Amino acid sequence: MQADPVLTPKPRLPRVVARVGRLRYLNLLAATVVSAFVVLLLLCLLLRSHRGGIHLFIVWLGVGLVIWQQVAAAIVSVWRLHDLGRSGAWALLWLVPYGGVVTTVYLLIAPGNAMPNRFGPAPALPGKLDKGLAAIVMVSMVAIAGASWWWGPVTVLGPVIDGFLALDR
């Protein structure tokens, strides 16, 4: 006996539906930046150990890394927008000049929906790990901002830039 084609459900494409709260959003954004920085350092070490035509290859890997980091941050932002009950299309505000900064600040400040919405159930409350990592991220951000304000961004970032430039010698 064959199945009736009218009653047989068509297979659906899987939808990625996720919601994250403010602390987890902050931690995931920090994870994308830190992972991109670690890979960039590894690329610099590779550049230091190989001479010749590898330089252009490393540059393109760095460009790809920046693109990957931005895509990962956009995905995490869509998850956060889902927690606010908004469509992921709002993440396109990142393409507007200064829109990414304004959107990120809004996503870090705005409280999410405590009830289930069309994007799924409410995210779990942040645990001790989320709170601890968020505290480390916030302290690091305040320390870097304070040092940049006190000594100037060139003085704070100068040794890092010098380290990258020294890798080429």
From TrEMBL:
**A Pfam family matched in the record:** DUF805
Quote the InterPro entries the UniProt record gives.
DUF805 (IPR008523)
Q: Which UniProt keywords apply?
A: Membrane, Transmembrane, Transmembrane helix
Bilayer-crossing residues are 25-47, 54-79, 91-111, 132-151
Q: Record's superkingdom?
A: Bacteria
The name on file for this protein is: DUF805 domain-containing protein
Which taxonomic lineage does the organism of this UniProt entry have?
A: Bacteria, Pseudomonadati, Pseudomonadota, Betaproteobacteria, Burkholderiales
